[in-house]
Specification:
Blueprint (H helix, E strand, L loop, with lengths): L1 H17 L9 H14 L2 H6 L5 H16 L2 H9 L2 E10 L2 E8 L6 E8 L2 E5 L1 H6 L5 H5 L1 H9 L6
Antiparallel strand pairs: 1-2, 2-3, 3-4
Length: 157
């Protein structure tokens, strides 16, 4: 009985502590950096901690998670080993900033928006949709498929 009580207490503290293990971002740049690092590392829980939890962002994050799990282990390692290359960080006002970056593995440039909501700095992925001119939503959410379609177009029937 005593062992069961100890195990229950330990499990209780572990479950209570897991959601609070991430530190709130001190500023917009901190939120952007933490989100990007978590994304490169494949740490969905941490990335979601720094994400504005609206429906569009959750859909984009879900798609990212699916695509990440399809990567081979070597590619995942290269993302984890990659450095964040800051191209531009710009405070637009006291509650909004943009963070343009690439990484040392893939040189693709991406811009995310960071917003302050209820005193917390959070990433808003919808900026990615705005920054892709004349690109369909499917191409943004699944760039691997659109590259394959471009390289191997289907013949006309």
């Amino acid at each position: 009985m005593k062992k069961l009580l100890i195990v229950s207490i330990v499990l209780f503290f572990i479950s209570c502590n897991s959601a609070g293990t991430f530190k709130k971002a001190e500023d917009a740049q901190d939120a952007g950096r933490e989100f990007i690092r978590a994304s490169l590392d494949g740490d969905q829980e941490k990335a979601e901690f720094y994400l504005w939890q609206d429906s569009t962002n959750r859909v984009l994050m879900s798609k990212w998670e699916q695509d990440y799990h399809r990567l081979d282990e070597q590619t995942k390692k290269q993302y984890k080993d990659a450095d964040i290359l800051v191209i531009n960080f710009k405070n637009l006002n006291d509650s909004t900033a943009t963070y343009t970056f690439s990484n040392s593995y893939k040189k693709d440039t991406t811009t995310i928006r960071i917003v302050r909501l209820s005193g917390e700095w959070l990433v808003d992925l919808k900026e990615i949709l705005k920054s892709k001119d004349n690109v369909g939503l499917d191409e943004i959410l699944n760039p691997t498929d659109s590259v394959k379609q471009t390289q191997n177009p289907k013949p006309d029937k």
